[in-house]
Amino acid sequence: MRPLKQVNISPGVCSISEFISPDTIDDDIISASSVLQHIPATTFPFAWEHYYAVNNSVTNTTSIVFIPHLVFTPTIVGAGQYELKWSYASSANRTTRDSIVRVEHVGGTQGNAADPSILYSKRLEMKDAAAISRVGGTGTDQEMTGSGFVELTLPAGPQTFNFLVRTFNADTVSSIWDARLSLTRVG
After folding, report:
1. How many helices and strands (H and E) does the chain possess?
2. Are the beta carbons of 187 and 46 closer than 8 angstroms?
3. Residues 2 and 23 sit within 8 Å (Cβ to Cβ)
């Protein structure tokens, strides 16, 4: 096994020095070596970009129209392939009513067939009666979490992604918290 000599990672650009090339990488050097073995040159084919947004606070609503919990507007440096990942926790305070959580790309064209801006939509049917709030003001001790990802082809420039929530009926409090959106260039 040859020793790992140098890997340069700096904001905006990642490069692998001349000491590491596909023919000199041994599988025992690094756990991600299979990824490195497929890099044809000593420089990654794109600049590394990563954007992240989080809202840990609780949004409670009785609205039957979607309201924003997290608005994420990164300015993309280079056009290319990106992976958008999300996660959240949600609840509703009635056993017979639902909460709906949605991730949308404003002006997007790669979402679902009914609305190309919608990347994720989840209708959550809670099965627990209202109780003492486990999370600030949600009116229930129940909690559902969700996560997902999608690959998108994005142009350079500002992009807007929204994490939205609504209730199915106005007599139900729908809540969302611990929402995260992460956008990383993958190609």
Report:
1. 1, 13
2. yes
3. no
pTM here?
0.70
Tokens of 81: 């392939």
Q: DSSP letter for 111, please.
A: S
Tell me, rounded to whole angstroms, the distance of Cα 1 from its chain centroid.
Answer: 38
* All residues at 6 or more sequence positions from 130 whose CB lies less than 8 Å from its CB, including other chains: 93, 94, 139, 140
CB hemisphere CA count around 178 (13 angstroms): 12
Q: What is the distance between the terminal CA atoms of the chain, rounded to a whole angstrom?
A: 30
Q: What is the pLDDT of residue 105?
A: 95
Instruction: Give the residue ranges of DSSP H helices in the chain.
Output: 33-37
Question: How do 174-185 and 118-125 pair as beta strands?
Answer: unpaired
